[in-house]
Amino acid sequence: MPKPKYHILVCKNTRPPGHPKGSCGERGAMGVLNQFNFGVMERNLIGQVIVTPTDCLGPCQMGPTVVVYPGHRARADAFGNLHVAVPR
Ligand code: FES
Which atom of ligand 1 is nearest to the CA of 15? Predict the structure, then answer.
């Protein structure tokens, strides 16, 4: 298998409702994960981009959280509060 150009980690961790830390799962992480997977397939980027569901990445209150390797200047970029856009 060739080395992928990008690796996208999507936190899908879910905590019980009302948990003080919150979680990406209760904020729509599975929809974000599905959109990344669909986008990779739609753009024929299989093998170049890998999308991996993960457990907690840390900034739970900003979820859904996504980390992309490599990001800007070869470091990882982290994104939070992502939502699935629904076309009108
Ligand atoms: S639950 Fe997603 S970053 Fe912690």
Answer: 1
Q: What are residue 9's DSSP bridge partners?
A: 52, 67
- Counting atoms of ligand 1 from 1, which one is nearest the CA of 64? 2
Q: State pLDDT tens for residues 9-64.
A: 999 999 998 999 999 999 999 999 999 999 999 999 999 999 999 999 999 988 89
Would you say the CB of residue 80 lies under 6 angstroms from ligand 1?
no
List the domains of the chain with CATH numbers.
Answer: 6-79 (3.40.30.10)
Q: Which of 51, 43, 42 is nearest to 6 (CA)?
A: 51
Residue to mutate (ligand 1; options 9, 10, 14, 23; most atoms within 8 A of CB): 23
